[in-house]
Amino acid sequence: MPDPRKVEALKNYPERLENVKQVRGFLGLVGYYRQLIEGFNEKAKPLHDLLSEKTSLVWRPKHSRAVKELKDALINVTMTSIFSPDLPLVLKTDASKYAVGAVLEQEGYPIAFESRKKSGREVFYPAYESELMAIVYALSKWKLFIGTELVTIERDHATLSRMLTQKKVTTRLGYWLDKLADFNFRGVYKPGKQNIVADALSRRPDYMEVISSLTESRPERNRRNKERVRSKLVEWGKGYESCDDFREIVKTCKTLGIDEGTGKFIPLIQEEKEFHWDDGLLWVKMREGWKMCVPTREIRREVLQGFHDDALAGHPGIEKTILDIERIFWWPALKTDVEGYVRSCPACALAKASFSKYGGLLHPLPTPKYPWEVINTDLIMGLPKGKDGFDAIVTFVCQLTKMAHLVPEQQSINASELGEVLWVEVLPMLEFAYNSTVRSSTKVSPFEMLYGFTPEKPVCRKYGLPMQAPAANLPLQAEVVLRRARRELDKPKLNQQRFANAHRRDVEFKVGDKVWLKVSHLPMATSSSSRSLSLRYRGPFKIIGRVGKRAYKLKLLPSMLMHPVFHVSLLKPWMKDTSSLRGSSSPQVAIGDKNENEVQGIFKHQDDPSTGRRWFKVF
């Protein structure tokens, strides 16, 4: 049984046509197949007679019957046409401002018709993108018919052939070109007058009600859009009287009076801008078209909330928010207000990742000036127990000479017991092996750095090798070695500092500042099964002290059981709304005698079978 979806575009074609252009478009569609429709002239006569009338078009029931008969006849031809995989395929497509249309043919017989209305975003596509979209849509729709067979595509846009071979394309075009790679086709250019069927399908009368662009070249052409906006913002006109930015402009526009020819207020040219007062609203002409002037801070706040905070807006960044608003609205400090509003958004600060350089410059620890001035301590554990019950080694290493003292201990030793370890209990053999070995960082052995010479090793005595003689002036020799060792130790520190600070930034806060705390590495942030949906920051928290050069102490909530000192890299400044449009609300509030977080939204919930409770992930 034939698939009825092949002719759905014809079935849904309106049977009542409103003007001469629509009648001619329909007659062009069915007239293209007049040789396949029995009694075409008789069926189409009422419509031809309607076009020949010199008076205005008057639609009668006989005209609707004629449209229905012609539709049914063409549907019957299509449904009875048998598709043959051995015959060549011809695909004809077209895209108008409001819709796309296509027809698939074999040897002049229609196999299937297709058309659809454009979405709101697609209405703004340029002509060449719309034409390519129509081709991709038709090929995807009839993939079962076409398969891998060669199909000839007839389109009325000559630039498509160049677009298919250009090296750089947008993401959208790249997606469509990738779709086209699945098909075997060749393109043929046909002028619009010869592409009658697809042209009529893309201009169906019921598709012509799609909204037009918001940025037409003249206000009078934008009448429908302005009325739609005014229905929601009917009180805006009253705001101009109290707006410092537009009060005088509106007054001047009204003073200029009305143009007798157009019946509208005379435009005002001021500072290379053209203002137009029309039906209680002020418009300004920009390079992209006419924009509505937004008065008062309250209305501007409403606009910013709609284009940034609204759930369908999606909290875009500064640049995207500006671009979205500038398509329709304008006021003098628009960019400054958007920047302050977006930077002070708590939801963005809590959830969005920071792409700034790592906070806090690297400051390596200073190289010691004297042996044993700075000591490193470590534990080597997990050793087999000795006869005295020792199963660990405590190491004490001089930061300058790298000389080590090793003390046996038990693995269960605690911090207090570690401080009481007697250094006289050394491990002579391990110490000698370590301290007489040349270190890569200093280029000398720890023993030589400390005493000015390297002691004789047992292997030298065994084979009679000569040993290094001590210098005549040991203190002077030791000082020379120490200076050389300090230079060698400073080199990697300086290199590390230089390379690290190339990707860091110096961040300074003051006591009393408010900051956001990065919690993605803390236990509180790992409760969600999806790290990408978890909040990256919490706060804001007040800085109550500075610890060292690169850490700050925060005033945390009592429920946050953690050490309140954090490195500067984990802190992000809390931005105050410089536009004063957001208000002074803070995401933290005090409830009763406890500090709690105000719930702004719910990410997810999870049921606990053991307790029967439901837990919510909120922000």
Automatic annotation (TrEMBL):
The keyword DNA-binding applies. It comes from the Eukaryota. Keywords: Aspartyl protease, DNA integration, DNA recombination, DNA-binding, DNA-directed DNA polymerase, Hydrolase, Magnesium, Metal-binding, Multifunctional enzyme, Nucleotidyltransferase, Protease, RNA-directed DNA polymerase, Transferase. GO terms for molecular function: aspartic-type endopeptidase activity; DNA binding; DNA-directed DNA polymerase activity; metal ion binding; RNA-directed DNA polymerase activity. CDD domains: RNase_HI_RT_Ty3. InterPro entries: DNA/RNA_pol_sf (IPR043502), Integrase_H2C2 (IPR041588), Retrovirus_Pol_polyprotein (IPR050951), Rev_trsase/Diguanyl_cyclase (IPR043128), RNaseH-like_sf (IPR012337), RNaseH_sf (IPR036397), RT_RNaseH_2 (IPR041577), SH3_Tf2-1 (IPR056924). Residues 297-353 form the Integrase zinc-binding domain. Residues 512-574 form the Tf2-1-like SH3-like domain. GO terms for biological process: DNA integration; DNA recombination; proteolysis. The keyword Magnesium applies. It holds the Pfam family SH3_Tf2-1. Residues 59-149 form the Reverse transcriptase/retrotransposon-derived protein RNase H-like domain. PANTHER family: PROTEIN CBG26694, PROTEIN NYNRIN-LIKE. This is Retrotransposon ty3-gypsy subclass. It comes from Cystoisospora suis.
